[in-house]
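Researcher: Going back to the complex we discussed earlier. I've cleaned up the inputs and rechecked each line, so this should be the final set. Can you rerun the prediction on the complete assembly and write out the structure?
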Amino acid sequence: MDAQLKRGILDVCVLSAIKNEDSYGYKIIKDLKPYIELSESTLYTILKRLELSNMLTVRTVEYDGRLRKYYHITNAGLGRIKDFIEEWSEVTSIYQFVVKGDAKNE
Amino acid sequence: MNKQEFLKAIKKKLKGLPKNEIEERLSFYSEMIEDKKEEGATEEDAISELGSVDRVASEILNDNEPSLIEKGKKVLNDVKINEAWKIVLIILGFPIWFSLLVTVFSVVISICASVFAVLISLYAVSLALVVSAFGGIVAGMVYLFSSSVIQGLAVIGLSLTCFGLSILLFYLTNLLTKSTIILIKKLLKRGNKNE
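Model: Rerun complete. Updated structure for the full complex:
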């Protein structure tokens, strides 16, 4: 996927992964794997960025003798998902337009 | 290479980054490795999934422009500094803003005093006119009864005019006073609301 396009989508992907229940790093990557490839470093950056813009909060939980960080979505994060859905219905119709145009030239 | 060696090697390449960011990143990867092991992978596989030491280190280094943690801390610190500075400036500026406040207050009071002085003068004028009017009527009567009828009538006429004028002036000054009081009340209310 185009790098710039991917960057714009990844924030929302991560937010969606923690939308219905708090999740942790490895689980987020696993859940998103069928849809989009996400490296650990990239995920770290995204989580940091979302935390600084108050779209998620972090808490540390003890698990099996070690510490694990859980990420929780905020109202701002939920709003971001909503905006994404609204914006992308426009993108879908543009996509249809492009596909149609491409089919004609064939 | 085991997990400790892996993380240590990466840490070496991250020299120059802020300490807490290094710690955060390393514990993030450590968590990742442990989770993969839990799912059944060997430590070796878990590590190789992350990439080579060089790869991971350069990913981390390329991510910093300045690092996100520092940006976040800076935002928090800037807010704190602003609040502290505000208080310091208010205290230091006390002589200035206090004197300005006193000056403005005095000017306002002077203006009010002048306005009331004008009103009082106007009342004084209408009083003077009434008194003159009476004086004039008396004088006019004297003229009348000492056969200077025309002068007498003229003086009496003039006096009555003065009397009329004084009544008019009195009435107008009353209106002026009332409006001034209403205006002052309005200004006071607005001033209080803004506080």
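Model: Worth noting: The mean pLDDT of chain B is 85.
Researcher: Good, that matches what I expected from the previous run.
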